[in-house]
Amino acid sequence: MKITISDLVKTYPGQARRATDDVSLEVADGEFLVLVGPSGCGKTTLLRMVAGLETPDTGTIHIGDKDVTGLAARHRGISMVFQSYAIFPHMKVRENIGFGLAMRKVDAAEIRRRVDQAAELLQLTEVLDRFPAQLSGGQRQRVAVARAVVVDSGVLLMDEPLSNLDALLRLQFRAELKKIVREIGTTTLYVTHDQAEAMSLGDRVAVMRDGRIAQLGPPLEVYDTPSDQFVGGFLGSPPMNFLPGSALVAVLGADSAPGLDNVLVGVRAEKVAVDAERTADAVPATVEVVEPTGASMLLTVLLDGHRLKVSTPPTFTAAPEQQIWLRFDPASLRFYDPETGLALLKS
Ligand SMILES: Nc1ncnc2c1ncn2[C@@H]1O[C@H](COP(=O)(O)OP(=O)(O)OP(=O)(O)O)[C@@H](O)[C@H]1O
Fold first, then answer.
1. pTM for the complete prediction?
2. Handedness of CA 63, 203, 100, 113 (dihedral sign)
3. Ligand 1: which of 5, 10, 11, 12 to mutate, most ligand atoms within 8 Å of CB?
4. Ramachandran area for residue 260 (φ above 0: left; ψ -120 to 50: alpha; else beta)
5. Across the beta sheet with 3-10, what order do the strands follow?
6. What's the pLDDT tens digit per position in 301-338?
7. 311 CA to middle of ligand 1, Å?
8. Residue whose CA lies nearest to ligand 1 atom number 4
């Protein structure tokens, strides 16, 4: 089922600012779309309006072709998994997973069949007869997901479903979740403040800021070509570097110098080539900090007084205060308006 969100405005009582400010968005049938952004940007509010847990001031929500804007949550045909996954402590895993089906008066044999199937998908078969207290955090989280997917509704809404897990489990379960959602093929709207999670899971990501969608697109497109400085600085670890154009005159050539005074140049850490020796077209920089990440060596360097992060192969050896040489591939540079932070088309 596709979800069509049109011009949603929501202001909470007593708040001066809009929590969502005229948001329009279409989630295609079977698509996994992630809403991501810093705390307070309005992503949870948007999800809760789709769920029917908040009422928009203006705007409409359609699920499939049906206008559900005025419908109660239980009549919208959606499943939800929230951060505080409310699984019932007094019910065994089997009853917890089957709860939604029992509420819908599905007959017992069918409930059993579907619970068994979901349990297998989520590797919970062994623990179906346990109580939640006898499960690990990751297993509890899987119960919450199983309970949502077993209902087989056309739309799945998730709000930070992995946030209760420790870093390792989070990473593991992220990949499992991606696989499961692909298998069941449900249209999914997913909220997270974690940009890595958003990139990993989303067919498309919508980066939100101040109640609006700053950019919407496939993860790598948004990563490679951020539409503004905010998106480039939010997505990616490390975030995109931004340098005044004047710092790159030597790289881009004197011809482009006049135009460079008024631009901000964005470049990703891994797009800068680093050499210990001077090479053609290279500019000198000084190493400030060296951080081994295992997969790469992350260097903080000073280029003409401007700080940036560059990543090199893990075998690259560098020490603080050492001079190194940087090469920039013009094709990987992005240009922004220093006043507005908006992307400029390359001339
Ligand atoms: N029940 C509420 N009453 C008043 N203001 C609210 C309420 N819920 C959210 N807000 C405000 O609305 C704005 C958007 O909040 P929302 O929870 O949607 O953001 P979010 O991006 O999900 O943030 P987080 O990641 O911290 O949950 C914020 O300014 C927040 O303070």
1. 0.91
2. positive
3. 12
4. alpha
5. 20-27, 3-10, 58-63, 66-67
6. 999 899 999 999 999 999 999 999 999 988 899 999 99
7. 36
8. 12
